[in-house]
Amino acid sequence: MIGPKCIRLHHEDWMWAEIRCPDSAQQLVFDFSHESEMRLQDQKNLAAQFLYVMRTARLMRPYPFHLNLCGLLPGTNQYAFMEQAFGIETPGSSVKTLADIPWTISPNHYTVDFPLNDLSKPVIYLSPNAPRCFEPGEWDHTAVYVIGAVVDKSVRRPVTLAKARRAGVQCIRLPLERYFNWSPGSGKCLTLNCIHDVMATAKSTNGDWETALRSHVPKRLYMETNIYSRQVKKLLTRI
């Protein structure tokens, strides 16, 4: 008799096969062409955030992304920080190289690995400065979504939008303003793992962006609507 443990183990094996397979899973690309825009500490923070990205990828049900790390070059500081974060040089670690992790690492620009003329897989870059945001219920399961591998706090210029436009890639942003009233000084800076979690939930819910955002955006970054309304009303009474 096949018990629930065997079924669970079989399901876990299938999930890992899905994560590793770029042919069946939807592609999610991280663009590592921004290393020159970041300080060394920001690059370390970026590598640490990918630990949480992989944690979510392992738990993503039922259809996980296949992660592509494009433009990550061996011999660079960012590559070394990634190796350090994932314990490549740790004695006794089962992970000997970054290639052992279920993702695809490519030294190429993402437009090389995912040609823009392939209309069956449109390339869409997520940028906080994009003129258009996702609409409710909008999710393209055939699209290749690209996330800039950059720590936003260290970059004050719209580098992701500028680079994507120069490459001829269409851009879109998360619909943050539609659902949140941002707290003063929050800066709207989301970590890479937060963005990945939002995208994972949006994928599994076919574009339920309110659920995706409210499930993962830290509450310290925004004010609840009723609190915001009370503060505005209080301010108006003083005028």
UniProtKB/TrEMBL annotation:
One of its GO terms (biological process) is mitochondrial tRNA 5'-end processing. Coiled coil: none annotated. It comes from the Eukaryota. InterPro entries: MT_TRM10-typ, MT_TRM10-typ_sf, Trm10_C_MTase_dom, tRNA_m1G_MeTrfase_euk. The keyword Ribosomal protein does not apply. The keyword Cell wall biogenesis/degradation does not apply. This is RNA (guanine-9-)-methyltransferase domain-containing protein 1. It comes from Opisthorchis felineus.
